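# step 3/5: fold
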Amino acid sequence: MPRSNTRLTRGVAFAAGVGYAAKGVVYLLVGGLAFLAAIGLGGDNVGTKEALYGLASKPFGDLMLGGLGTGLAAYAAWRLLQALLDTEDVGRGPKGLVTRLGFLISSLIHGSLGIYCLDLLRNAASSSGQDTASDRTALVMSHQGGLYVIFAIGLVFIAIGLRQLWRAIRRTYLKNWYRQDMGPLQRRLADIITRWGLSARGVVFQVIGLFLCISAWQTDPSEAQGLGGALNVLAAQPFGPWLLGAVALGLASYGLYCLINAAIRDTSID
């Protein structure tokens, strides 16, 4: 293999690993705070931006935000490569296009989170840290065709949520891992953590997608819910604290899954 290609492959692998690690830390924060709220120890149901905003006032907050911002930008670049180069070999059929569209949306979301971290470092973000899903939805709806865009994004979120559940059931993530470096116990633990994490994230994404569709259908941006809002919806259901606790631990497990990916995932682009 030419040296330039080797350097590119290593560079992509390093960037993807840093990206997965940063994403894992963010989901550990969100899941941890939601679990503390579920058991009544003072946590809160927050989205990713709110979790990042909370770091700004913590010791070494600037350092953490700088590292996470860089990592999230790297993850956004990796997702963009997955969408453009079809690194997962999903093809160009309807299922493959939805998957690659999901990668593209993920790239945009995590790219915006990386920029938000940099904004926090420059003290240019909102003083309250509240950039809600309703606000973003209202902005899109204010443009011509915005209702259709929001409804389509809602359908994509639902599709991604279903795909997460399908991956948990079929364990398709195993083909992306270098499992020869893992012992039997490590493989089993990684499998359990991943299935729980993907299932919880799948449920949350379907809730978010459903409320986006309802928001577009009723022409009411206030119906839209982000990650924190979706957790609040789950908490309001019968046996809410138990349901919220299970999903919160699942989101934390998804964070651990991202850290596992940072260590052993195949990130080749050929």
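# step 4/5: annotate
The mean pLDDT is 86.
# step 5/5: archive (pending)
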